[in-house]
Amino acid sequence: MTTAQLLALDTIVLALVAGCWLGGGVAAVLAGRDRSPRTARIAAGLVVAALVCTALRVALTVGLAGAGWWFAADKLLLALPLVVVPGLVAAVISLPRLVRLAPGGAAVAGPILIAGYGGLGGVAAALTVSYPVSPVAAGVITGLVAGASVPTWRMLSGHPPSRRWSAAGGTAVLCFAVVWAGGAVWSSRLPDRLNLSAHHGSGAVAVPGHSGTGALPGRQVSVTDLRESAAAERPARSFTLTARPADITLASGRVVRAWTFDGRVPGPTIRVRQGELVEVRLRNQMPDLAVTLHWHGYHVPAGDDGVAGVTQDAVRPGGEFVYRFRATDPGSYWYHSHDMANPAVRMGLFGMFVVDPVDPADTGGAAGDKDATGRAALSDHTVVLHTLGVAGTVAVDDQVPADGLARLRVAPGTPVRLRVAATDNVPRTLGLSGVPYRLTAVDGRDLTRPGRLDDRRLRLAAGGRYDLTFTMPSRPVLLSVDGRDDLGLLVTGGEGAAPPPARGPVLDITSYGQAAPSSTGPFDREITWVLDRRFALLDGVPMLAHTVNGRVWPDIETPVVREGELIRITVVNRGRDTHPMHPHGHHVLVLSRDGRPVTTGPLWMDTFDVGPGEVWEVALRADNPGIWMSHCHDLGHASLGMTFHLAYEGITTPFDAGRASGNHPE
Q1: Residue 501: how many CB atoms within 10 A of its CB?
Q2: pLDDT at residue 165, as a whole number
Q3: Which of 26, 281, 336, 587 has the lowest tally of Cβ within 10 angstroms?
């Protein structure tokens, strides 16, 4: 079984363990009162079922421990001891007496009920405890189980606590609960102003004997100094984007209210050539919304990353901000607002950013993707997948989004490159039918000698980009989305019916293409991020949050690294949701998934899907100083806590997040 299947089965067995032990305990109490053989048999049957379920949970935990300590720590250290110890007592003392139809007293029903309380403690642990196990949470759960067990035993023994002691104990417990809960709520509230420079933690473990170059001890550099000088050189390309609300008419005629750049969704494609100095002026004409521009996947200087409260103040209505950076890396990227990012992107504040290589021939795709005359001309298009309102849409280049099949005409024999971006919060499954094709680039980085694909499908992470290349045949080609024949892109070069959507297996991207030499070691630091979903206090409000190492933003530790260091990052998903992880300002080199080394190479990504139960190991070269947000690019997950940062030693920011700052990074 996969780790995800073990986790899902463990959730079911967890509920059965608690239910069977509690049911057996109640039946044992009733059997002791009415001396009914039938009730005693029911109690015995439930205890046997509880023992079987408990043994199964132990086996599942052992299996999960084999996948990694992250998946089993809370069970082995907390949940299982609470139920196994009284369960063994029940198996040795209570069950034989129930089988002999001799129930009665605390010695029979007590261990069974206490095991049931332990089972409920396991449920509480599953809802509130992640990795690493919090001693406070473990202590509270253990205390609650003990607090329920002691009076239960006394009552079953015929010595219930007096009313005075019961009232005093209940009052003390209530006062403690009120004070503890109030303190926890108050301490979890977002402060009026929060500066990330002073919020650095120690989440990176240095590897002995290795160290990056780093900043000079005591030297402080602001993110505002990590920008291209406005006076150094005249920009080669200048653009202006204006954020404003608008009604968008889709290809079907349906009208959708949206937040836009220049009245379009997606916003205008910004296309430049490698090496050019780019200047983009952002103006805000939104009536009640601040905006920024984040360059998703692009290695801009930290001062231009566009994260409100970290690298700049959000641009208020009527304001403007100028981004200025050099386009050093060719490839397919995108931009979007990063203040209240979840609603901003969902409503339309995004667009494509494409950097063409210095040599135009480098965009021609893999060998063989040229027309019969050997022309280098390329039909190069951006394809954006986004849900506007309730409609799935496909936008080709700067055309009106199609809420169905977008259409594109390309002459047969022409090499084609489709730069596909998924800008929703969910992954998309792509299929290209009617022609052999290649997956030429992932997240803006070309793959090494990508192989031919026939009817294979591709899973594209939320926020990710795939470049697909092929030579246009005389018959139509269909780029289908999520297996649908009515959503995607139909490319035609002549007559003929659209082919059916691709139905082949989904490509394992970690084993595609030809391996190329890539040196990764030795590592200077190691970081572990354990992703989960647990009840937590988020800005003073209890909710089912998305956590990293058991915490939510802004309390997740910020690893501090030095420039030049090579960092190994292990990302573990204990939950049941897929998390497209996105570190700003860097690509990561994928090393392994679930312990299996990547056989293609090098595979560089800036947004990688960590599925339920998966463990990814990636390498990051600290070559872009700054304070960098890292988060799940399901932006709903990010807004529910799964937002954190990677900081370089000596880098500071003058900008604040927080209630009174007007900045909302997520």
Answers
A1: 23
A2: 64
A3: 281
